Amino acid sequence: MSSSTAVRAGRPGFVWVAPALTFFGLFALLPMVVVVYLSFTAYDGLNPPQWVGLQNWTRIGTDPLFVETLRLSFVLTAASWVLQTAVALPLGVWLARRGRSRALLAAIFFIPLLMSSAAIAVLWSTLLDPNFGLASVLGPLVGIDDGNIIGDSRYAFAAVILVIGWQYMPFHTLLYQAAARAIPVQLYEAARIDGAGRWRTFRSITVPQLRDTIITSGVLIVVGSMTTFEVVLILTGGGPGTSTRILPLHMYLEGFRSFDMGYASALAVVLLVLGTALSLFIARVTGYRTMASQREGM
């Protein structure tokens, strides 16, 4: 048997990937095509779409809220990446070590993974309620006498970032925990023999070994932050004013409250392009496409 025949024999046939391709085509590619089509129409969700050409796209350039919502989306994405990585990375490495107390803390810390975005938003809206929530106590400590943190344009967006971080940090911690446990212990033993301290070991061994996981986590944070809106919708509704109106929420409000599905579809296409471009940019500048196992002998 030739080598090429052996290689082909070891690969799954098309029939094996057909279900996945069918699922992806029906629930990903087809909706994308429909949204692109609707972005060139006037559609209220009730009557048939009417072709209007580039009218929705030219409106984006004159929409006074578009630039602001786009800016807030980028700020949310950058802040989420910094906050979640700074907390999840060291916490995941710490939880990767064996210990009964660590396992108990991990079980408690991962509770947000079991909750939906709506439940988390309702929970935090109750905690930040200025009348009977924790905000009535924490508010005066940060200079908000009435405790209305999510009702103050100076602090509402920061509160949104913290709530979203609280929601997704356990997931990324789990990624780092699994990756840290896969690091060969021989590397740490060699570092200990050489007299390296904890910080030097973390910086010179742990972080380089987690490089691929850091990139993967970063891509997930970027894509997730560019598309999330449920927490913002329930927690602040985009307010006070427009201080927390990010682009995905702007798209939702235009489509389902203003019943302008055509313009909302154009905003959805913008989100799709931005999310894809950011992901490809990260993959290119970090060498994500050339990932290889960093374990010896693999």
Automatic annotation (TrEMBL):
UniProt-annotated location(s): Cell membrane
Residue ranges of every copy of the ABC transmembrane type-1 domain listed in the record: 70-282
Signal peptide interval: none
Transmembrane intervals: 12-40, 72-96, 103-124, 155-176, 219-241, 261-283
Superkingdom of origin: Bacteria
Any Pfam family hit: BPD_transp_1
InterPro entries cross-referenced by the UniProt entry: ABC_transporter_permease (IPR051393), MetI-like (IPR000515), MetI-like_sf (IPR035906)
Membrane-topology descriptor: Multi-pass membrane protein
Gene3D superfamilies per the UniProt record, alphabetical: MetI-like
Keywords linked to the UniProt accession: Cell membrane, Membrane, Transmembrane, Transmembrane helix, Transport
Chain coiled-coil ranges: none
Family: Belongs to the binding-protein-dependent transport system permease family.
Database matches in PANTHER family: ABC TRANSPORTER PERMEASE PROTEIN, INNER MEMBRANE ABC TRANSPORTER PERMEASE PROTEIN YCJO
Protein name: Sugar ABC transporter permease
